[in-house]
Design goal:
It comes from Agathobacter rectalis. The protein is mainly alpha-helical. It has helices at residues 20-27, 31-45, 62-69, 73-85, 112-131, 136-150, 156-177, 189-200, 218-230, 232-242, 260-263, 269-273, 292-301, and strands spanning 51-52, 89-91, 97-99. It is built from 13 helices and three strands, in the order H-H-E-H-H-E-E-H-H-H-H-H-H-H-H-H. Strands 1-3-2 form a three-stranded antiparallel beta sheet.
């Protein structure tokens, strides 16, 4: 019987522990415990492309990290502080943890440059979404200030300097490996992840989040098709429009709420994308007939079931 499971693995070079960063880390008091926590976080984050957020929406607390790494909470708190200062991880204001070097250890070398660039863009995009600021450098400064306020022991200058060195090294490696172009028909895992995470942010309005997106299923194929057709930015914009629609959030006669599987269908997505359901759409007066919005939704619900 064929094995259809997806396996994730970490590729470490034989001199991994001989790097200056790892020598400095393990040279500290309890440094070997910190490096063990680091490797376990690398492995846990593999299925999310280096991003740590439980089920995609719940930030990992020190207690949760202690549970999954089998270390004391106090040790985990010290380790996270050290790993952040040394540039191994970055913790965003929403609690998402990014393993900054993990793109060196996963995937194929032919796609390495593109994957690393997408990963850095993903982090910056999430920063901008959290802070509501389009200037990436300003967001970086704000994140540094927040970290400094949280801990008197934090040293933003050291962290920023370490990050700049790593990014310069990353750019140098990208120049030597950027040989192959990604096909226009390819939808990256990063784009799919961004769309799912943006959808799951609607859970605060009571909408059902996506807990599973298996390759080859109807919902996965539909999402890939919408990303190819419109581009990831337009898909994210369409999800954002849902926030401006009381109707899609359940404020209608039947109490129906939009679902992910309904949203990605080819006949439904354009309506949401074009703002068909937004609050500015005229609604019927009390006692009047159904609006064209409700009529369309009733028709669509009749044949578009959730997966």
């Amino acid at each position: 019987m064929a094995d259809n499971k997806t396996y994730y693995y970490l590729k470490l070079k034989e001199n991994f522990f001989d790097s200056e960063d790892m020598k400095l880390l393990q040279g500290m008091k309890d440094g070997y415990l910190y490096s063990d926590i680091l490797l376990k976080l690398y492995l846990i984050s593999l299925s999310q492309d280096g991003r740590l957020m439980y089920r995609g929406i719940i930030p990992y607390t020190p207690e949760m990290v202690a549970t999954v790494t089998r270390h004391q909470v106090g040790t985990v708190e010290k380790a996270m502080d050290v790993l952040g200062k040394m540039g191994f991880i970055e913790i965003l204001d929403n609690g998402a943890i990014y393993m900054l070097d993990i793109q060196n250890f996963i995937g194929q070398s032919s796609t390495e440059a593109d994957r690393k660039r997408e990963y850095r863009n993903l982090i910056n995009t999430e920063k901008k979404r959290i802070c509501g600021n389009s200037n990436v450098s300003d967001v970086g400064q704000m994140a540094g200030q927040m970290s400094k306020q949280k801990s008197d022991k934090s040293t933003p200058e050291y962290r920023e300097q370490s990050k700049e060195i790593r990014e310069e090294s990353l750019e140098s490696r990208e120049q030597s490996t950027e040989i192959f172009a990604v096909s226009k028909d390819t939808v990256s895992r990063t784009d799919v992840q961004r769309a799912v995470e943006e959808w799951n942010s609607l859970a605060v309005y009571g909408l059902r989040p996506v807990s599973k997106l298996t390759s080859g299923t109807k919902r996965a194929k539909c999402l890939n098709a919408r990303i190819k057709e419109y581009g990831i930015d337009e898909v994210l914009a369409a999800i954002e429009r849902i926030k401006n629609s009381d109707f899609l959030k359940g404020n209608n006669k039947s109490g129906w709420m939009i679902t992910f599987d309904w949203f990605v269908l080819p006949n439904n997505f354009p309506k949401v994308h074009d703002g068909y359901y937004e609050n500015s759409t005229p609604q019927p007066q009390n006692g009047g007939s159904q609006s064209h919005v409700e009529q369309f939704a009733d028709f669509a619900r009749g044949w578009a079931g959730d997966e």
